[in-house]
UniProtKB/TrEMBL annotation:
EC number of this enzyme: 1.14.14.1
Protein name, UniProt field: unspecific monooxygenase
Top EC class of this enzyme: oxidoreductase
Predominant subcellular localization, coarse grouping: endoplasmic reticulum
Subcellular location: Endoplasmic reticulum membrane; Microsome membrane
GO cellular component term, pick one: endoplasmic reticulum membrane
Pfam families, sorted: p450
Membrane topology: Peripheral membrane protein
GO BP terms, alphabetized: epoxygenase P450 pathway; xenobiotic metabolic process
């Protein structure tokens, strides 16, 4: 038994050394990639990331900030599990990547959880020619339905009236503005995507909002770290219960809702008169029936619709909540905004875009709120489209990256 035991120990040591050397080669064989903090084989910098304050949604960005400002400068490399990531930090580095070398940095990277949910379809998580076609179609369709035009302005004014009435019904008692703001913003998106707004008590609409808030809460909480682990170890996490499984389940609920709306639209579709985004997409599908390579299919319709609904609802309602919080913290700023609103708009009508040029202070405050908040600390994943020379480094083709609102870029 003793020789067998010694042989087993020797075998384990040899295998461990081979794994270590193999992983170390991968970690150190970065060629002309920028340097970064020491990473463990297999798990990379995962332990450092998990050691952060998981209650802070900007924690990962703060971690990046500490690294680059202390030692590595505006460009450095870390490892998310076995995934090698280059981080770009600061306005100059980000501008150079996104503006000066925009074509090279225009690809869409991959995250395992995003691939599981979207499967490469839709606008946000698609890539290459699919992304170009769907993005171009979405922008054209939204413009046709009044994005930036008077028709959308009227929808916003109408929804604002419903929101104000709902706030009045609180009878000046303390209340949480999260749900009313989310309902109002979501209804404006719904009117463009689904063709109509929903009553605030509509059960299907409430289900959608609840699913949206549940997903947001998952990402804001401790459970976000478990969701992040899915991106590091997707095969393992598929078999482990946790919040990532709830995100996948919620995604299926969203899909069922859109499929139901799509069926309703098909039954009343007028090819000469599209009513909303779904109608326009169905007409495009009809036009491209003979094209076997067409990107206009049911899968991309469902995902594109969800992308517009979720992205539009989450970002705008969160911005409004932050705006209210900031104005509460700075009552002197709120007072000046209030004075300008009373002076230009008054109390007898709704605001309109034409008022903007006459309200420079309010306009500046809105821009400062948007600058101040950090909506998506890591944003959506990107990738360079070819081997890219960036400053003194070389980033290989298809290298995954994330663009951050706070002018940090992760590649």
């Amino acid at each position: 038994m003793e020789p067998l035991g010694a042989t087993t120990v020797f075998f384990v040591i040899c295998v461990s050394c081979l794994l270590f050397l193999s992983a170390w080669r991968k970690l150190s064989g970065s060629g002309k990639l920028p340097p970064g903090p020491v990473a463990f084989p297999i798990i990379g910098n995962t332990l450092q990331l998990l050691a952060l304050d998981v209650g802070d949604p900007c924690s990962f960005s703060n971690y990046n900030s500490r690294i680059d400002t202390v030692k590595y400068g505006p460009i450095f490399t870390i490892y998310l599990g076995s995934l090698r990531v280059v981080v770009l930090y600061g306005q100059e580095a980000v501008k150079e990547a996104l503006i000066d070398q925009g074509d090279e940095f225009s690809g869409r990277g991959k995250l395992a959880l995003a691939d599981k949910l979207a499967k490469g379809t839709g606008i946000i998580f698609s890539n290459g020619e699919r992304w170009k076609q769907l993005r171009r179609f979405a922008l054209t369709t939204l413009r046709n339905f009044g994005m930036g035009k008077k028709s959308v302005e009227e929808r916003i004014q109408e929804e604002a009236c419903f929101l104000v009435e709902r706030l009045r019904n609180t009878h000046e008692r303390p209340f949480d503005p999260t749900i009313p703001l989310t309902h109002a913003v979501s209804n404006i998106i719904c009117s463009i995507v689904f063709g109509d707004r929903f009553d605030y008590e509509d059960q299907k609409f409430l289900t959608l909002i609840n699913l949206t808030e549940e997903n947001n809460e998952l990402f804001r909480s401790l459970l976000a770290q478990v969701c992040s682990l899915y991106n590091f170890f997707p095969t393992l996490m598929d078999y482990i219960p946790g919040p990532h499984q709830l995100l996948i389940k919620n995604s299926e609920e969203f899909k069922r809702f859109v499929l139901e709306r799509m069926k309703m639209h098909k039954e009343s579709l007028d090819l000469s008169c599209p009513r909303d985004f779904i109608d326009a997409f169905l007409i495009k599908m009809e036009q491209e029936q003979q094209n076997d390579q067409s990107e206009f299919n049911t899968e991309n319709l469902v995902r594109s619709t969800l992308d517009l609904f979720l992205a539009g609802t989450g970002t705008t309602s969160t911005t409004l909540r932050h705006g209210l919080l900031i104005l509460l913290k700075y009552p002197d700023i709120e007072e000046k905004v209030h004075e300008e609103i009373d002076h230009v708009i008054g109390r007898s009508r709704s605001p309109c875009m034409a008022d903007r040029s006459q309200m420079p202070y309010t306009d500046a405050v809105i821009h400062e709120i948007q600058r101040f908040i950090n909506l998506v600390p890591l944003n959506v994943p990107h990738a360079v489209t070819r081997d890219t020379h960036f400053r003194q480094y070389v980033i290989p083709k298809s290298f995954p990256n994330l663009f951050d609102v706070e002018t940090r870029v992760v590649i």
